[in-house]
Amino acid sequence: MTVASPYAVELARIPVTERVAEVAGATTRIWEYGAAGTDAGSRTAADTVIVVVHGFRGDHHGLEPVIAHLGAAGRRIVAPDLPGFGESGPLPREHDLAGYVGWLDALVPLVKAESPTAQVVLVGHSFGSIVVSAAAAGATGLEPPAADSIVLINPIAAPALSGPRGVLTKLAIGYYRVAAALPERLGFAVLRSALVVRVISVSMAKTHDRELRRWIHDQHDRYFSAFTNRSVVLDAFRASVSHDVSEFGPAIATPTLLVAADRDDITPIEAQHALQAAMPAAELVVLDEVGHLIHYERPCEAAAAIELFLGERPRIADGATEGTTTA
């Protein structure tokens, strides 16, 4: 039985449309939220376009709680499923970081063309933070997407094995290696194991709210195994543990907001502070008593931090000193 979202009321207030676009050879399913995304004519009226990039093994549903609190008038929020995940088709190439960066580089101009005068904001969560930062740094040799600002939620600020629970990452690497070594059908079944998904969900959730935990587990049960095939998820996993935002941060001059958690099992909070210090124009907001699921457990605070950042962005762009805020 589906568990009702605690953010359903907020999300229901926002108009949403769906469409499909061919992006970098991948049939990409896109959801658009906000009054500015209801038809082609009103799209051009949006003063801000926010493109959100979800994390590994998830799909666009993961960032819907944050979107629910960002649905202000005059904003167009574009939420695609990454190629090979959710309802999007795979790329016609390896699903490595370069492949995903090329896809994002192709997506942003399409979005920008429909709202040519709008400010463009790129938001990435977890693995999405790596994709967004690599694209913004021009790491694959492509021209960085024309973004006016960047937001990274639960950024992977250091190598995954350096996290507070790096042993879990080592276990995950072993799990994916086993899945890769097995015959195709059996390996695919192992990757979609409901038991493994629940273990991952339980390990990441920090909230003591039983109903919220129940909903988080339901979200992972429903969407965490929606990938096209074994190759897609194995490629993406290798990309997620082989790179991190610290590789690209120093080359990103675009004003950037880092929304981090003090109990994130993947990235120690010290690495978030180091990342912010290494980036030319970054602010860091740290949310207390939450881990790698800010988008599920603290979306209201994340959205509030984004709203404040977007409102103050000219100050950052003018060279004011960026700081750290704790919430």
UniProtKB/TrEMBL annotation:
Domain AB hydrolase-1: from-to ranges: 50-305
Any one GO molecular-function label of the UniProt entry: hydrolase activity
Keyword RNA-binding among UniProt keywords: no
Highest taxon in the source lineage: Bacteria
Annotated InterPro entries: AB_hydrolase_1, AB_hydrolase_fold, AB_hydrolase_sf, Epox_hydrolase-like
UniProt keyword terms in alphabetical order: Hydrolase
Stored PANTHER family: HYDROLASE, PUTATIVE (AFU_ORTHOLOGUE AFUA_2G14860)-RELATED, MONOACYLGLYCEROL LIPASE
Protein name, as recorded: Alpha/beta hydrolase
Originating species: Herbiconiux moechotypicola
